[in-house]
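User: Can you recover a sequence for this backbone? Please restate the input before giving your answer.

Assistant: Of course. Working from this structure:
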């Protein structure tokens, strides 16, 4: 494989049409000039660059400029606690920290810090090349020990993702792509670099609108975006999802969590000219691994009432293994395992965990996803939830995500979450459920659940709290729900 740089496709687009819009009012020529200035300031010796910012032009220039210089970038979120940011910077030991307005004042003295907007543009220079196995970026995800895991992704892996995604979702220079995820979440890699690879324009959804971006998508005439399914619940609650209200959308992609069939069909009515596609992929396999389009008769995972995971991207292999890492027959449940060209290089400064999660299976490097699922007779993959969401209640094994799926079904698709309680493994004796809406009769909900679930899986309590807490990436924040329960004694 030849040398590569995430900035190379941007450079190609700049040479073809420097005058076209690239980013929030800036042309490809203007962004190239400003990213080149960042790369010049970083210098050729820079290897690790932390980018501390939210969805902003400055943060985009920081990311692109880091790539331009040949360095690996480490996106950090300015809303993270000060201690967490300090600890991560000590772990990364970056050559520089690039910040935007929200990152201002969040970095302790001693680091080399730059706000990209403070630099004057220069004549664009060709991005430096990167070795195929050189690191393109590192994304931090939650760790079971409480310490974030840094997932290191090579230039080779992300190049394969972009080429495979461009074939599946062929954007054009006319497309207007909305970036709805924070840069500390790996879906942003897809947003930024797939857009610029196509020579299209990138539009940044303001943080205040991220959970309900309908008005932004309509006003900007967005033609492609990736959304978290939970945002549909929020937009529906706000009565934004009117049929035909987003006619400009061509590509409606959904990731970060499972997409209910009812949500997919509702959105298809809202954006009738778009293709609705559910994406699946852990950070450790470079953003997206499988896809399932909404069709008149799509593949559905009946246990969860969601679109199936679907089939792997070209160059990605998937299989289902038992507890001894042996393949299982169709319809047999096991752990989903991924192989192929998109595997991350491993975890930052953690060779033991890297070896554990990326073992060689029959001579092939693999990633153990921790997701529980199966493959059906037609070759479609299905996910039943996380292995760590499987609990034992009074000796009975319960899939919490199955309980959540039933809650959504009987409550008309509203937000739902289920926790094992008390919050101590081995001491669980009941399930506590949460609904993100009011006005439901708890006895009626429990009665309907009894028609779908065994008695030990029916929640002992159902709390209707109006709106379930969400993380910065739009997922239900189960840690916040546990804290809420603990505070009630």
């Amino acid at each position: 494989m030849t040398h590569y740089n995430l900035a190379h496709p941007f450079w190609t687009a700049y040479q073809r049409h420097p005058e076209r819009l690239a980013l929030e009012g800036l042309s490809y020529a203007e962004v190239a000039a400003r990213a080149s200035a960042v790369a010049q300031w970083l210098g050729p010796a820079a290897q690790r660059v932390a980018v501390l910012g939210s969805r902003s032009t400055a943060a985009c220039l920081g990311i692109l400029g880091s790539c331009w210089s040949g360095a690996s970038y480490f996106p950090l979120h300015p809303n993270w606690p000060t201690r967490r940011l300090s600890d991560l910077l000590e772990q990364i030991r970056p050559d520089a920290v690039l910040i935007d307005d929200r990152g201002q004042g969040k970095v302790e003295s001693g680091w080399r810090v730059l706000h990209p907007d403070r630099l004057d543009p220069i004549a664009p220079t060709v991005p430096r090349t990167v070795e195929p196995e050189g690191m393109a970026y590192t994304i931090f995800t939650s760790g079971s020990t409480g310490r974030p895991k840094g997932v290191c992704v090579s230039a080779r892996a992300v190049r394969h993702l972009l080429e495979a995604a461009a074939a599946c979702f062929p954007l054009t220079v006319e497309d207007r792509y909305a970036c709805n995820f924070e840069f500390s979440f790996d879906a942003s890699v897809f947003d930024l670099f797939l857009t610029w690879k196509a020579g299209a324009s990138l539009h940044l959804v303001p943080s205040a609108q991220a959970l309900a971006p309908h008005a932004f998508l309509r006003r900007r005439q967005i033609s492609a975006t990736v959304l978290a399914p939970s945002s549909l619940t929020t937009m529906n609650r706000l009565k934004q999802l009117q049929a035909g209200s987003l006619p400009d959308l061509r590509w409606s992609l959904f990731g970060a969590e499972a997409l209910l069939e009812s949500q997919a069909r509702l959105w298809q009515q809202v954006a009738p000219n778009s293709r609705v596609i559910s994406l699946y992929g852990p950070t450790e396999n470079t953003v997206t691994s499988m896809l399932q389009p909404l069709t008149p008769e799509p593949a559905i995972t009946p246990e969860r009432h969601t679109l199936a995971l679907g089939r792997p991207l070209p160059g990605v292999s998937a299989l289902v293994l038992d507890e001894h890492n042996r393949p299982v027959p169709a319809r047999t449940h096991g752990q989903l395992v991924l192989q192929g060209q998109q595997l991350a290089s491993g975890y930052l400064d953690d060779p033991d965990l890297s070896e554990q999660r990326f073992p060689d299976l029959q001579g092939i490097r693999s990633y153990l996803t921790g997701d529980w699922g199966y493959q059906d007779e037609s070759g479609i993959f299905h996910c039943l939830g996380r292995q760590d969401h499987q609990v034992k209640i009074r000796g009975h094994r319960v899939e919490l995500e199955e309980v959540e799926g039933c809650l959504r079904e009987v409550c008309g698709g509203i937000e739902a979450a289920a926790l094992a309680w008390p919050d101590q493994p081995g001491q669980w004796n009941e399930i506590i459920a949460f609904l993100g809406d009011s006005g439901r009769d708890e006895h009626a909900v429990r009665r309907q659940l009894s028609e779908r679930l065994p008695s030990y899986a029916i929640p002992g309590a159902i709390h209707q709290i109006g709106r379930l807490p969400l993380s910065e990436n739009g997922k239900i924040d189960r840690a916040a729900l546990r804290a809420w329960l603990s505070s009630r004694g």
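That completes the design. DSSP finds 13 helices and 28 strands in the chain.
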